[in-house]
Amino acid sequence: MSIEVHNLHQHYGETRAIDGVCMKLPDSAQVLALIGPSGGGKSTFLRLIGGIETPTSGTVIVDNQELPKEEEGLLDYRKSNGFLFQAFNLFPHLSALDNIILPLTEVHGWSRHKAEERAHEVVKRFYLEKHLEKHPGQLSGGQQQRIALARAVAHEPALLLLDEPTSALDPEMKAGVLDLIKELCDAGQRIVLSTHEMGFARQSADHVVFLAEGEILEEGKAEELFEASREPKVTQFLDRVMKW
Ligand SMILES: Nc1ncnc2c1ncn2[C@@H]1O[C@H](COP(=O)(O)OP(=O)(O)OP(=O)(O)O)[C@@H](O)[C@H]1O
Ligand SMILES: [Mg+2]
Fold it and tell me: What whole-number distance in Å separates Cα of residue 157 and Cα of residue 144?
């Protein structure tokens, strides 16, 4: 996939969440994992790549198209992507099934019939058939995460952005999501994800970016970065977290 970022900044008041990031992903990369300490800027970087926010300054170029700088111009691009938010962002007043159907009909203009058919396909794939009528407040964290993931992939997005896709899952479900990501990859899906789980990053991604304090400390092929990182701070971080 083709993603380029030039001197990107995202500041929230005094906080420099992204602080001068430059990156050019190799075209061969299909799954990019963002790793690094909490507060390092992973979610912010994902939102900028996905067009959820406009940056303070700098440019993001996806598939050789520079993302528009104003909110309005971003809407079409945003629609073409699928996003799993760290906090899930499900509609609390809608059933699990309607959480998947509504964006298909309202945002993507699908007929109710087509949206229902697709929604039933994806819930089956995520083992959620028993929970269709429940509202988010009646679902466990892991079930909510799977509904949000089902919603993110339902319209077959050009780029799938996953913010900590396994954080609320038990080990078996994590393995299931990993299988699903592999399945999506085999079907050609391009994915950018953030994760605190190094095993997951290593198995799912072909390229890894390590973000800390809004800067890229190191990036490279997943197997190389995990086997032998060049940056001492990254090595130290990996040594510490891989013990768990
Ligand atoms: N909308 C916002 N308004 C103000 N500050 C924000 C906003 N979003 C993020 N930040 C700040 O920007 C910094 C980076 O946050 P971000 O959520 O991108 O980190 P992260 O790497 O995803 O962390 P985590 O691993 O805990 O999810 C943090 O200091 C955070 O408090
Ligand atoms: Mg985050």
Answer: 20
Ligand 1 lined by 42 (C-beta under 6 Å): yes
Ligand 1 and 38: CB distance under 6 A: yes
Q: Is the pLDDT of residue 173 over 90?
A: no
Across 116-136, b (16+ Cβ under 10 Å) vs e yields bebbeebbeebebeebbebbb
Which residue, judged by its Cα, is nearest atom 1 of ligand 1? 12
pLDDT of residue 244: 61
Ligand 1 pocket, 43 CB below 6 A?
yes
> Fold for domain 3-242?
Rossmann fold (3.40.50)
Measured in Å, residue 148 CA sits from the centre of ligand 2 at 16
From the CA of 111, how far away is ligand 2's center (Å)? 34
Report helix, strand or coil for 137: helix
Question: Tokens standing for 130?
Answer: 């028993």
Rounded average pLDDT over 2-29: 96
pLDDT for the residue numbered 217: 97
Helices (H), the chain: 42-50, 71-80, 96-102, 112-125, 141-153, 171-186, 198-204, 222-227, 232-242
> Which of the 8 DSSP states describes residue 56?
S
Please tell me the number of the ligand nearest to residue 15's CA.
1
Using CA atoms, how far apart are residues 209 and 226, in angstroms rounded to an integer?
Answer: 11
- pTM equals 0.95
Token pair of 33 as six digits: 């994992």
Ligand 1, atom 13, residue with closest C-alpha: 17
